[in-house]
Amino acid sequence: MKFILSFLILFSNINLIAQQKFSKEISLVTDNDLYVSSIRDRYYTSGIFLTYRHLSKKENINLEKLFFEWQIGHKMYTPNKPIIQNISLHDRPFAAYLYGSLNIKRVYKTNEILSTSIQIGSIGPSAKGNELQNALHKLYDFREVTGWKYQIKNAFGFNLGLEYIKFMAKSSNNKLDVSWMNTLNLGTVFSDLSTGLNLRLSFKPLQKIANSIAFNTNLNNTNTKYKREIESFFYFKPVLRYALYDATLQGSFLSTNNAVTKELIPFVFDMELGFKFTANRFNFGYIFNYNTSKSKGLKYTYGNKYGTIIINYLMH
């Protein structure tokens, strides 16, 4: 009986929170190849992203919602083994990228999303990849990394981003839908464009793209017609990307004499397979990521795998 009462109280609290409107959110996202393998530690090996997101009270006749997102991010890349000391065996450069960004997301009443972003940061030793990776290795009792002395040299990072998402179709019971996703990045660190699909599958009706954790649009205030809903769904996102420039591989054009650089493979296939759900004030997610080889001369040519863990906390 006590168990039943406790369950009913918990369920009531979840429903109560689901009916509330939260207009702010803090998000922590971490990428790591350790999330898919206890022994894999190569290529894109770590990413840490802390984001503050809030819903604007400004109203627009064409918009459902307008979001502002501030983010601090760090990305880290290593050769096939980060402990390799012989520079001739580095099949890709050591590199780290540290940045701050602002993203403005416009959710239109036509079931479309347009996001524009600006990133300012640094690539090279000033991004502290060596220090961060060795701290993580010490935490997990791994060997010290010694190859960072050959990393991509310091250079200013400035990138502009554009993302366009359009809802395409859904099943008759609204438990399966698909959206079309497109991105463009231009700058001193990354320049690429991509297109792909986002397919969601749930055992209950899916939320619209204007009010779903799938697109980070689930925040609401007194000006919106939506309220927060309980969500849980699987999703699959296949993407084809064309890379024009990648300073973590080629070295920045703003610096010279990098010890190790590699040639890009222009066309890359990216894939995400994940599960996301809500729980009280939190949103959680786990994603399995795969991409085909990004550069020529890699020791492992069958692509790279890593995991993503997402934790979001909502606030009034």
Question: Can you walk me through this structure?
Answer:
With 316 residues, the protein is mostly beta strands. The chain has a single domain (2-315), classed as Outer membrane protein (Lipocalin, Beta Barrel), CATH 2.40.128.140. It contains 3 helices and 12 strands. It has helices at residues 2-19, 129-139, 247-250; strands spanning 24-32, 43-55, 63-78, 95-108, 112-123, 155-170, 176-187, 190-201, 232-246, 267-279, 282-291, 304-315. A hairpin with a 3-residue loop joins strand 4 (95-108) and strand 5 (112-123). The longest helix has 18 residues, at 2-19. It is elongated, with a radius of gyration of 21 Å. The two termini are 34 Å apart.
Describe the structure in brief.
The chain is mainly beta and 316 residues long.
Outline the biggest β-sheet: 12 strands, antiparallel, barrel
Based on the coordinates given, report the CATH architecture.
Beta Barrel
Q: How many individual domains? A: 1
Strand order of the largest sheet: 1-2-3-4-5-6-7-8-9-10-11-12
**Number of DSSP helices?**
3
Broad shape: elongated
Helix content: 10-25%
Average pLDDT, all residues: 93
Number of E strands: 12
CATH class identity: Mainly Beta
Straight-line distance between termini = 34 Å
Low-confidence stretches: 1-16
| CATH-defined fold name | Lipocalin
What is the percentage of strand-forming residues?
Answer: over 45%
List the helices and strands and how they pair.
Layout: H1 2-19, E1 24-32, E2 43-55, E3 63-78, E4 95-108, E5 112-123, H2 129-139, E6 155-170, E7 176-187, E8 190-201, E9 232-246, H3 247-250, E10 267-279, E11 282-291, E12 304-315
